[in-house]
Amino acid sequence: MKLAFAFLLFVSPALLCQVHTVGLHQLDLSTMDVGWGSPKANVSVDGNRLAIAGRTFEHGVGTHAFSRMLINLNAAGTRFRSHVGIDDETRKRGSSEFVVLGDKRILWRSGVMKAGDSARSADVDLSGIRLLGLLVTDGGDNINYDHADWCDAVIEMKESRTAKELAVAAQAQDVAPSILTPPAKETPKINGPTIFGARPGSPFLYTIPATGNRPMTYSVTDLPKGLACDPTTGHISGTVGNAGTYTVTLVVTNGLGKDERSLRIVIGDKVALTPPLGWNSWNCWAGSVDADKVRASAGAMVEKGLRDHGWMYINIDDTWQGLRGGYFGAIQPNHKFPDMKSLSDEIHSLGLKLGIYSTPWITSYALYAGGSSDSPEGVWTKDSMANSRHWRHGAYTFEQRDAKQWAEWGIDYLKYDWNPNNVEAVVRMQKALRESGRDIVYSLSNSAPFENADTWARTANCWRTTGDIIDTWASMSRIGFSQDRWHPFAGPGHWNDPDMLVVGLVGWGPDLHPTRLTPDEQYTHISLWALLSAPLLLGCDLARLDEFTLGLLTNDEVLGIQQDALGRQARQIEHDGGTEVWLKELEDGSYAAGLFFTGDDLRDPVTAFNWDRVTRKSVTMSLPKSGTHKAFTVRDVWRQKDLGTFEETFTAEVPYHGVVLVSITPVK
User: Thinking of the domain 277-569, which architecture would CATH place it in?
Assistant: First the structure.
């Protein structure tokens, strides 16, 4: 008995000092916000073995700037240890800084690290820390290729904690998701833009967007010579030979009533007088896209009612391309698209328009034939050219051939994709499209250099201002709230494009998932893009749109801000402690404004986190100075409800990562 007691006295101190170790890779990584891709346990963000400057690691987390994660230690942690750096898979590209924070204090920072730098070691005392924050920034430039690794990352604990106990939700939410858009009325209502442009002699197609009970009858008064309206479909088609502005009256009737609205048809040099509204296949189907999926998406755009709110384009992204041939010696479709002309005709018969993808490189990003070659015949072979070594311009270019083929098929929109966008290639394709005999909206992708913004505005209809978006707050908010410097270059016929929408079911391939954006973040996404006069291109499975997502996409007052004929991009007018206000001038002399609670400020590592889990905040904006007008009627745009008359300022309670979107009209 005495021996047993002595043994207990000897063992107890060791038990009291026992260290519990939890690997970062063992935690719920869905709570880690990332700027691109998804965080991955024990591999890089691209799924490769973790490697920094030639040194490999078995355990850790591969992520991508901007990346942040809060961990609930509740004062049970003792140390955090990790080796950090840029993963070797970037091939000497990318730069980031790693920061470890605790309870609103910076505990350790790596300094800016570049690809190829040896791993740096963090060994941080966590005594008394309740919330641990792990942050990866972009190193002060941009997030391109910022593949960041936390290797052999462990938290030492004095008490055992489960992964669930350590997890802190990435977003603070205080309300269940709600549909703010009121349902459409049964009586007719004409929606969509108040202006539409085409070039003289080009095929013309415009579908009158209208909600209300079917059947409906459509008519148009004062149409220019060469155009006619189908009374059962509302499709206005034909060709106008003479330039000019023609103001027509659209009329829609059903058994319950009638609606009328003016539309300015401008026949001149410009198309895309308002930002495009449509769908693109990449964020949904990526390389698995085929003609049947495109056909089904067009049918869903009609069936779900999106066409009735002005949504128009069905755009095929990369992987449709076969080899060169045919009458024009142009890229022909591969086996997934057996008859592109027939598909185009089907899309047009629905009152929609068809888009296509290409690149001036020899090989596209998805490793299909591009618009140039080192061969004068445009020879492209999968065995030798389907690789990233051919992500370059060839000695021979084929813009004229391809543009003529697209026009013959009836293509209405081109996404032209490579990086960096260079002026010579942009101008060559612009010339080819203009000479094709068809109006084809010209959209550049991706990351158009800002120093050439005035050139993009003269030569293209849209240009991507950033790299690719993904369905996270870090990605969407970083892109959306960084657009202010592009403001001078937006206007009718030329639009800044912060990339596609990431709402609904997305996934970049056949396996789709619901967007990782919270409902409030989705309201911010749509509101901000509308204020920016940005193209709205869906990237989700249209056939499986739920009621919440449909509500996001069919609010005609929100879409009216995006489609406003003045074409001004909103400006950031206030930015203070995790809140922002953006203001947009509208054609009728009123304004639209977004009051945002971003909840974070990435300029300071400490303010990058919502430490106190705040769910709402009051945001105040100064009302515009509008001549002699001192009072303004303020209207909640999402709820389509007047909020009252205000002078000098307006204040709203805004949810975390959310928005209050309002229209502001001077009281006469």
Answer: Alpha-Beta Barrel (3.20)
Query: H-type helices in 350-472, by residue range?
Result: 382-385, 399-409, 423-434, 453-459
- Give pLDDT, residue 327: 97
Q: How far is CA 550 from CA 214, 356, 504, in A?
A: 19, 25, 9
Give every CB contact of residue 280 below 8 A, 6+ residues apart in sequence: 315, 317, 355, 415, 500, 537, 538, 539
Fold adopted by 189-267: Immunoglobulin-like (2.60.40)
- Which amino acid, 377? E
Return the pLDDT at 170. 63
In this prediction the pTM is: 0.93
Helix (H, G, I), strand (E, B) or coil at 439: coil
**pLDDT confidence tier of residue 14, bands split at 50, 70 and 90:** very low
Q: What whole-number distance in Å separates Cα of residue 579 and Cα of residue 561?
A: 21
| CATH superfamily of domain region 18-166 | NPCBM/NEW2 domain (2.60.120.1060)
Domain locations in the chain as residue ranges: 18-166, 189-267, 277-569, 573-666
320-373 per-position pLDDT tens digit: 999 999 999 999 999 999 999 999 999 999 999 999 999 999 999 999 999 999
Domain with residues 573-666, CATH architecture: Sandwich (2.60)
Q: Which residue has the tokens 């300071």?
A: 604
At 395-416, the pLDDT tens digits run 999 999 999 999 999 999 999 9
> Same CATH fold, 573-666 and 18-166?
no
CB atoms within 10 A of CB 447: 19
As annotated, the active-site residues are 417, 468
- CB-facing half-sphere around the CA of 414: CA atoms within 13 A: 30
Please state, for a pLDDT cut of 70, what percent of the chain lies above it: 96
For 21, list phi and psi in degrees, rounded to 5.
Answer: -110, 130
Please provide residue 207's backbone torsions phi and psi, each rounded to the nearest 5 degrees.
Answer: -100, 125
CB 81 within 8 A of CB 152: yes
pLDDT in tens, 278-298: 999 999 999 999 999 999 999
Query: What's the number of CA atoms in the CB half-sphere (13 Å) around residue 604?
Result: 11
Structure tokens of 206? 């415009």
- Give per-residue pLDDT as tens, 409-451: 999 999 999 999 999 999 999 999 999 999 999 999 999 999 9
DSSP string of 483-513, one letter each residue:
-GGGGGG-BTTBEEE------SEE-SSSS-E
DSSP 43-107: B-TTSSBEEETTEEESSEEEEESSEEEEEE-TT-EEEEEEEEEE-GGGSS--EEEEEEEETTEEE
Which pLDDT value is given to residue 628? 76
* pLDDT score of 177: 73
Q: If DSSP states are collapsed to H, E and C, what string results for 361-384?
A: ECECCCCCECCEECCCCCCCCHHH
Contacts of the segment 608-613: beta carbons below 8 A, 24+ positions apart: 608/66, 608/68, 608/133, 608/135, 608/137, 609/68, 609/70, 609/101, 609/131, 609/133, 609/135, 610/172, 610/656, 611/70, 611/103, 611/104, 611/131, 611/133, 613/172
Give the three-state DSSP class for 165: helix
As a whole number of angstroms, the distance between CA 636 and CA 659 comes to 11
User: Residue 394, exposed/middle/buried by CB under 10 A (0-12, 13-18, 19+)?
Assistant: buried
Closest CA to 69 of 24, 110, 114, 124: 24
pLDDT at 625: 85
State the amino acid at position 12 in one-letter form: S
Mapping DSSP onto H, E and C, the string for 269-311 reads CCCCCCCCEEEECHHHHHHHCCHHHHHHHHHHHHHCCHHHHCC
Q: How many residues does the chain have?
A: 668
Question: CA-CA distance, 466 to 483, in Å (whole number)?
Answer: 9
